[in-house]
Amino acid sequence: MATCHTPTPSRSNAAAPEAARTVVLAGNPNVGKSVVFAALTGTYVDVSNFPGTTVELFRGHRGELEIIDTPGVYGVGSLNDEEAVARDVILTADTVVNVVDAVHPERDLFLTLQLIDMGLSVIVVLNMADEARKQGVAIDRDLLEDLLGVPVVEMVAVTGEGVDELLRRLPEAHPGHADPTLDTDVLPLAAKIGSRAEAVLVLEGDAVVAERHGLEPHTSADCVYSARRARVNDVVGHVLTTTTEGAGLGAHLSYLMMHPLTGLPMLGALLWLMYKVLGEWVAADLVGITEGTLMNGYYEPFMRGLVERVFATGTAGYTFLAGEFGILTMTVTYLFGVILPLVAGFYLLMALLEDSGYLPRIAALADRSLTSLGLNGRAVIPLILGLGCVTMGTLTTRILGSRRERFIATTLMAIAVPCSAQIAVITALMARVGGWYALGYFVALLGIFVLVGTVLNKLTPGVSTDLLIDLPPLRVPRIGNVLRKSSQKVYHFMKEVAVFFLAGAALISTLSITGALAWVQTAAEPLTVGWLHLPKEAATAFVMGFVRRDFGAAGFFTMNLSSAQLLVAMVTITLFVPCVASVMVILKERGWKYLAGLLITSVSGAFLVGGLLAQLLDVLT
Amino acid sequence: MRNRNCKRQGMCGGTLDTMRRGQCCRVLGIDDDRARSQAIRFGMGEGAMLSCITKLPAGPLVMRSGRQEIAIGRDLARRIRVEPVSAQVVC
Questions:
Q1: pLDDT tens-place string over residues A459-516
Q2: Which domain, by its residues, includes A95?
Q3: Which residue of B has its CA nearest to A236?
């Protein structure tokens, strides 16, 4: 099979040291790409957002090579943000390392052949070779190499097996056997726009790439895709031999996880466990140590002592740096004493869920219920994340298929999903008032969640996408993988929120110094005292709740509230605006107009529901 | 093109949502642009052989193609035209 332009690969070895070459990792989701990345780059990686999106990019170095990890995709195109980011990074690559799951070549080779059709210098990594052997899947590597026309390396990235071979053979990467039938269309187009890779994408109907070159996207995507699929099946038919059909305990468990009768209790148990771990062990016990003992006990007095040497107590400078909302005291305490343990615990649990393959099964289970809220099953992933922290959840809405779904999910989270820190504080408060009120709180919240979702589904224009999700095999999570994934995310998250916290604390301090806080308390009296039947200090708690929701809830700790007042306060503060970090993320993701609408709706909604509840409880008691 | 033929000749077996657990089918067409691109990437585009592993009550169908398992929402399944295939051929 003749190819268009095959440079002689061996010569690049002898070439004089050139500028750092860009090696881009590409592959389907969950094929161990990040493990290959870590094996190649070691520990020092730089995480950044791709410009204009929230898709994370990991960059690292190995000698002269710049190595970039891309989001997992099933193909290169404009189907979603991740694909678009992967596409743009791949287009800058000198060499593409295509990581292929040796257990699922029929799925993964679609991307491989697309990369080859694009005329890129490719080297294929057959990862999880051990797992494939265990499952009775054998791939004839040499034949695959011949058929694809690019080097193929077997690897078990988790143990590091095959990493040396990959590094040794990296310079051998070169364009493979592209589909010759594409050439009649691609070659003239490539000559015109100067890139075969982009020409292929235009041919496949990629509107974004076409627009960059002032062209209309072609409409032959189906045809190109189908031909490619046929070639994948052909290649797989030649190189793959299977000895066993893997349908054992895993398949049975998978079924049980998705069926409502068994799946719901399992999901319930999982949520309970998560609550136990995060809400009680982490939020109460661990945070009690980190916040109470370490930060409040040692750090804050020390810091206040330092600040006192420069500013006298009570001055604006002191209040700003070390006052009640001081940026050196409260902010640091909240960031490292409260948020860090919570977020670390949460990401650790999420990484466990992710690595085990349970999450997509929850998505299948929840699909039916979420459809009536205008979402599909995939939305459970941001929603569950939102239970940990609304900011994280909002960032994750990018995995949803349409603007409409991202809109609905973000709104639901901002309004009716309490974060774990808040749940912890609320549980602690509710423990004082007895079971019925606590139950009332959760029922009210669930009701509002369903109500808001149903209304949004009715009112939001557009069409939501349907569930179409890959169910990876269930497996016991690999600790190394889980730790690496979660620590990277924690680091990234902390970096993201720190600024917002500083800004939030500075804002509140300013309000307090200028006397605006006291003014708000008085001005809000008709609302807090008259309508919600709460003490006037409640206004401070609401302002605090803007900085952090749990912080707001905690503000009610010191007020002597009756059970009914507590219930009203908790429902109102939950529905009230999301914390400052979420607000900033929402602003970044959804824009000004959305944010303004959300803030107005949630504030008025919160006071409306809270007030109605207060009147109702008044009548009842 | 194939879709049109299929409609004209009235040989479209039915839609995916009518499949029952254990049944097998061949995909004839997917009437949803986005889902079609995605489905081909998964290896379950036009012409693919699928077997139904699970059908959740009023919820998604879980289909297997090769060793790949995919959950498909019920509404989408209504827009995927399939023809039943005897189980011995593929399963």
A1: 988 888 899 888 888 888 888 778 887 887 788 778 777 777 787 778 878 887 888 8
A2: 11-242
A3: B66
pTM: 0.76
Residue A128's domain is classified under what CATH number?
A: 3.40.50.300
Share above pLDDT 90 across residues of chain A, in percent, rounded to a whole number: 21
Hey, is the C-beta of A257 within 8 angstroms of any chain B C-beta? no
Q: Quick one: pLDDT at residue A113?
A: 95
Instruction: Give the count of domains, chain A.
Output: 1
Question: Nearest-CA residue of chain A relative to B66?
Answer: A106
- A window 370-409, beta carbon within 8 A of B: 371, 376-377, 401
Q: Name the 3-class secondary structure at A421.
A: helix
B57, B67, B75: residue with CB nearest A260: B57
Contact B62, B55 (CB under 8 A): yes
Q: What is the ipTM of this complex?
A: 0.83
- The answer to whether residue A4 is domain-embedded is no
| Mean pLDDT per 10-residue section of chain A, whose length is 621 residues | 38 42 90 83 59 66 87 84 87 93 88 94 90 83 94 87 90 91 88 90 88 84 84 89 65 86 90 79 82 89 91 86 85 83 84 87 92 91 82 81 89 84 71 73 87 92 88 83 82 76 79 84 88 86 74 72 85 81 78 89 90 89 75
Best of B2, B40, B53, B55 to substitute, by most chain A Cβ atoms within 10 angstroms, is B40
The residue length of chain A stands at 621
Chains A, B: CB pairs < 8 Å: 126
Q: Which residues pair with A48 in a beta bridge?
A: A57
Report the C-alpha gap between A47 and A58 in whole angstroms: 5
Q: B27, B48 in Cβ contact below 8 A?
A: yes
Q: Which one, of A185, A213, A183, A184, lies nearest residue A198 by Cα?
A: A213
Residue A493 burial (CB count, 10 A): 21
**Residue A404 in domain:** no
CATH topology of domain B2-90: SH3 type barrels. (2.30.30)
**Model confidence over A220-267: pLDDT tens digits?**
777 888 888 889 989 998 998 876 555 567 778 888 898 888 999 998
- Determine, yes or no, domain membership for A531: no
User: In chain B, which residue's Cα lies nearest the Cα of A102?
Assistant: B67
Strands A122-127 and A152-154: parallel
**Residue B88 pLDDT class (50, 70, 90 cuts):** low
Q: Hey, are the CB atoms on A106 and B69 less than 8 Å from each other?
A: no
Q: Do B62 and A471 touch (CB under 8 A)?
A: yes
Cβ-Cβ contacts under 8 Å for B83 (sequence gap 6 or more): B11, B12, B13, B14, B25, B26, B28
